[in-house]
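Appendix B. One record, verbatim.
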Amino acid sequence: MKRTRATIVLLLSLLILASNVLVSRQIFAEISVARGECIEAPEVYLNKLSFVINKNPRSKSDRYYITSRLFCLYNDSRFTTASKYPDSFASTAAMDEIRSENKKNREACFKVISKFLQSSREIRCEAIKVLAYFGDPRAATLLMSCDDINPADKATLLAITGDRRAIPWILRQYKEAETLSGETGTVDVAPTIHRKKVYLNALFHLGTRAELPFIDGVLRNEKSDAIRERARLVKNHIEEFYPH
């Protein structure tokens, strides 16, 4: 009898220990996601999101569970390079790599993520970013309905979609950045230059000869050498792909 009780106590202790380990791992995973450290493969996040039944939860923790995993589906190293370091993004090779790597999970992504388009605005816009990153043909139009997305991130996602209907929005954003910098007298500040580079990179992938007058205007009027260099790259690229 004593041995039986001792065995039961030992088993209970082991179960408690195992439970604590699982909880610790879960907490670590949540902290990692909270810090933006998306350490799992896309398949893992897609699988977790596929089991979400309540697409529009009321609790903050449940909404966070969904949005954090949506965030990790598009905010990988390639998107970071494209949106945060535009000098290394304006190339067809970079775009081909993004599309090639995402192709294997594309169909699964569309199937799982599309259900979140009926969610609240916060979740819906994160889902739209994922769809754009994986090349959903609806994404460019959907992105326009999300006004609270960082404009530079939106421009990068629009470039990835390849949808030329986004061009007027991109041109408008560039002009607004120019106006704001002119009003404050800070035309050469890093954030403004960064955004302009991102918008020009989007034109690198979406622009046609119809955008050449705009690019020529940038080359004539832009004070920043870095922006003029980027505009020249865009012009050469467009002229190469759309000769007279």
